[in-house]
Every structure is written in structure tokens, then in C-alpha cells.
Amino acid sequence: MSLLQLHGVTKRFGGLTANQDVSFSVDAGQIVGLIGPNGAGKTTAFNCVAGFYAPSEGHITLDGRTISGLAPEACARAGIARTFQIARTFTSMTACENVMAAALLHQGRVPAALATALQWLAFVGLARFADKPAGSMTISEQRRLAVARALAIDPKLLLMDEVMAGLNPSEVHEMVEVVLNIRQRGIACLIVEHVLEGIMPIADKIVVLDRGTKIADGTPAEVSRDPAVIAAYLGDA
Amino acid sequence: MSLKSILLLAALLAACLLPFAGLGTSHLNLAILMLMAAQLGAAWNMIGGYAGQASLGHAAFFGIGAYTSTLLLLKFGLNPWLGMLGGGLTAAVLSLAFGWSCFRLKGHYFAMATIAVAELVQIVFTEWDYAGGAVGLTIPMNKQGLTEMVFAGKAPYYWLALGLLVATLLATFAIERSFLGYYLRAIKDEPDAARSIGIDISRYKQVALSLSAFFTAMGGSLYAQKELYIDPNSVLSTALSIKMALVSILGGVGTLFGPLFGAVMLTGIEEVTRATFGGSGRGTDTIIYASLLIIIAVFYPSGIVGWWRARAQRWKTKRSNAAAAVAAVTSEGTL
User: Fold this and answer.
1) Structural domain contains residue B76
2) Looking at the domain assignment, is residue B332 inside a domain?
3) Domain that holds residue B316
4) In this structure, which of A107, A133, B60, B111 has its CB flanked by the most CB atoms within 10 Å?
5) Residues B252 and B295 in one domain
6) Claim to verify: residue B327 and residue B258 sit in the same structural domain
7) Based on the domain organization, do B268 and B164 belong to the same domain?
8) Per the domain annotation, does B3 fall within a domain?
9) B192/A84 Cβ within 8 A
10) Exposure string (b/e) for A150-182, b if CB count within 10 Å is 16 or more?
11) Is A72–B254 a contact, with Cβ atoms under 8 angstroms apart?
12) Which residues contact B225 (CB under 8 A, 6 or more apart)?
């Protein structure tokens, strides 16, 4: 059984249909890339999974349990963590406190949360920045901090929204390493990404959206040969 | 014990002994005003500072505290100590309605809604004959002593105000150290990110508001016992709400001791300008008071504590940069 399953998800904003009958699944421990041109509805689908939007039609299950319509905080408790396009770190806190705020969801006590937070900071390579104010970190560091914070709620599925956008090649490489390590921990990743050279080599599966509908779904190799995908990206002649 | 806690205890001891220092009544009264302003600022800071929900309606809680303990005393003969607790609990419960109606709005709109709710409370008390209406309520002075919380001298009120301030700061410290402190700062910084890590932001905003209302109302009860007279204008005015927020904002929002510095400065400026320019009439004192506030807001936008921290941070960076430079030179020398 799939970990995450979208069943015919449609999301309308007034007269605009951002997602039309989108179905796909993410298996436990899989890295799935959600790609598509600008305005394809990637972020909308992503926000439906994370509980920030309720689908207009269709439903979403996590481990067989329906989660669509739940609030974001309830989705987090159910095992879905997410990052944002802009890192949205808590800038009045240190890096460590950022991760502690998340670790407190399951730890309850501050000292236990501190220990967990330090582990996740080390996991994303930020151990030496533990006491640095989050607001004074670089974009790349803040992105990784946001990943550590998301992981600290002990999720089954991590949603990453354009986590590689705007990074230089060596920073992209660091982030790819982090994603591979996350999979090794048995945590599934659903990644919305524009940086195809970052996501294509590591994804187990790619889902392509265009104008709100799913146009392809398969391994990176299959998808990159798909005429519909090529047409969507390059424009049909 | 760290140097910081020794200094804090010494300051507390000095504060306890202040009434024995031979201050005149007016100076002791000024000290009481400072302590009471600091306590109210600290209570406001829980929701306005730590959780970042700037309320401009806190006079509602202050007034509810003052009226609850006074009405319980006058109508039912309830001891003011219990009345104070009752006032705090009443305000904490009523803050559910306050939060329910105001937390739907964010930022400036939230602040505007809190003003409206507080105005509503003021109107209700002005029209409510049972609570004395616009005339207000007077607490009789015939029974005095610790159990009655009525004193002829100023010093006991000073200790009461100090005790309440210490209690409020201890509660703030406990919040800051617990999970709640992390949650409130997360909600203040990035509400959406806070939800994404499982924080129920409506619930914790309400928790902070109820705690804040509880301590604000206790301050209101103390005010009633000190002045022995309350009316809607003195305990429910918007000016009072603004002052509670100002104390915290000037001192440094979301910091433990910010409201204390803010209160000393605000009350000090207020009283000095009033004493110096008040006699001239035409509100010269208010003009100077407001000008000084504007100057502080322009030059120290993050409050006194915020300014101090930024300065300390700059020193630290300078020192570590210097150390790094020295290290670089030394290592080059050895190469």
C-alpha cells in the first residue's frame, strides 16, 4: 500500500481550476519529484497534501487514513512535514531553537527537545551554527535549517517546496546529499522542483503536472522521453 | 549561582528595602506607579510581546479585575485577596470571548478590534447601575490592615506592587523557558511555519491571552485597593490600554525585563514633565512627554533591551573578528 495517495484531487479558487482530477501516490521511503512549468498547479497540490488547502473534490490518504480537510497542524501530527519556498525560519530564534520548537511536538520537555534538535542540525550539516540567530544565516543555510526543523516532528513524509531554487551548484549538491540521507532514514520525500538537474538523478518517480492536470507519471527516464512532457516544457510546435 | 542571579537577588533585596530609605510620600508613590506600570507591561508582554499579538484593549482586563474585586467586596463582603484572585480568573475566562472575537483578525486589524472590544466594556460599565455606573465605586477606609488590603501608609502598597511584579516576571520566566515560550515566538515569527510543525496557533494565542488577562486583572484589583476609588474612566480607558503596550514596547517587546525598564522610563518622563511643566497649563507637559516618546521610538526602535542586545552583539562580533584576525596573522607567521 502506498504511504500517500491522492485520489482525483481537484482544487478550484473561484472560477480558476488549479488542480483537475490529480491522482498519484508516494510509497514509503520513496523520493518523488513533482514537476511542471510555471502555473502547472504544483504548489496547489502540495498545499492540499499539507493541509493548507482543502481539496474541492477528491480525497487524500496517508497510510490509508483520510487526511484531506485536516488543518495543517493536524497533518503535521499525522506525519506530514513540509518546507516553504521561502525558508520561513523563526528569525528571532537561534538555529537550535528553531528545530527545538518542532521537536517539542513529540518530546514535550525542553531538554529532550534540545537533544533531538542537535541531532537534526548535525544531520543537515549545521551543527556548528546551533547558536547562530536564524535571521543571520545564508539562504542555503536557512533552507537546510527549515529541512531540519521539518524532520524534527518525526514525519513519515517530507514535502519540500523548491528547496533547491536559487542555490549555486555546490549548494544544490549539499541539498541533494541531505535528501538522499533523508530517504536512507526511511522517510519519503515529495519534492516540488524547478531545478531538474537536482531532482532527476535522485528521484524514484516523477509526476508531471501541466495546467492543473497530471500529464505523466513514471521513472525519471520514462518521463523525460514522454512526448507530452517535452511538449509541455518546450511548447508544442 | 551565576553572577547574573546574584545581581538580580541583590536588586530585589534593595527594592524590598527601599521604603526604609527615608523617601518622601510622593517619591514612594512614584516608585509604586513604576512598579504597577512594570507589572502591567509585563502582563501585556505575554501576548503582545512573546506571541506578537499587539492588543490595545488590555484596559478591559484591568477594569474587569478592579471591578470584580471591588464588587465582590462591596456587595458580598468578600476579602480583597480572594477578590483579586477572582478578578484574575474572571478576566481569564472573559478573555475567551475577547480572543474568539479578535484573533480572527491579524496585525493592525487585530489591534483595532481589541480597541473596539475594550470600548464596549467601558460603555457597559458606564451604563451599569449595579456597578456604580459613571459615578464609580468607593472602597471604605474604616477597616484597615493586611487582611483587608487597605492601608493608611504607602509602603504596604509598595510591597504589594513589588510582589505582584515579581510574580508576573516569574510567570513570564516560566513561560519563556517552557515549550510555550518556543511556541509563542514561533507563532510571532512565522504563523504558517508554526502550523506546519504541529502548533495549534489559535489555542496557544488564547493560552497566552488568558495568562496575560489574569495578571493584568490582578494589577487592576491592586489599583482599586490602592486608590480606594474606581470609575470607568480611570480603569477602562483606551489611554490605559495604550500605556500598557507602550511600557512593553519602549522597554523591549518579548524580553523578560523590557517592561521594567520601559515602566521606569515612561513613568519617570511622565512625572518629571508633569512636575516641571504641568503648572503652566495648556498641556505643555503632555506635549513634551509625547515628543520624548517619539524621540525614543525613532532612535531605539527595538526598545531599550533590544538596543542593548544589539550593542552587546556588535561588541562580541568585533571581539571575535579581532581574535580571528590575530589568529590569522599568527598562523601566517608560523607558516
Assistant:
1) yes
2) yes
3) 308-335
4) B60
5) yes
6) no
7) yes
8) no
9) yes
10) bbbbebbbbbbbbbbbebeeebbebbbebbeeb
11) no
12) B69, B80, B84, B139, B149, B150, B157, B160
- Residue of chain B whose Cα is closest to the Cα of A132: B313
For the entire predicted model, the pTM comes to 0.89
Those residues whose C-beta lies under 8 Å from the C-beta of residue B271, and which sit 6 or more positions away, are B30, B33
What pLDDT does B175 receive?
A: 95
Query: What percent of chain A is helix, strand and coil (3-state, nearest 5)?
Result: 40, 25, 35
Report the CATH number that the domain containing residue B202 is assigned in CATH.
1.10.3470
Report the residue of chain A nearest B201, measured CA to CA: A73
Q: Domain total for chain B?
A: 2
Supply the pLDDT for residue B308: 83
Q: What residues in A contact B200, CB-CB < 8 Å?
A: 71, 73
Q: Are B263 and B329 found together in one domain?
A: no
Would you state the pLDDT for residue B298? Answer: 76
The yes-or-no verdict on residue B253 having pLDDT over 90 is no
Cell numbers representing residue B164 in the block = 505582584
Quick one: fold of A1-79+156-179+188-237?
A: Rossmann fold (3.40.50)
Task: Say if residue B227 is in the same domain as residue B259.
Answer: yes
CB within 8 Å: B193 and A84: yes
Give the closest-approach CA distance of A58 to chain B in angstroms: 22
Mutation pick from B196, B253, B313 vs chain A, by most beta carbons of A within 10 Å, is: B196
Mean pLDDT across A38-53: 90
Could you tell me which residues are beta bridge partners of residue B137?
A: B230
Whether residue B263 lies inside any domain: the answer is yes
In whole numbers, what is the pLDDT of chain A averaged over residues?
A: 90
pLDDT by residue (tens digit) across B256-283?
Answer: 998 999 899 888 888 888 878 776 666 7
Chain A residues with beta carbon closer than 8 angstroms to that of B177: 110
Shared domain for B188 and B317, answered yes or no, is no
What's the confidence (pLDDT) of residue B335? 45
A92·B188 Cβ contact <8 A = yes
ipTM metric: 0.90
DSSP annotation of B289: H
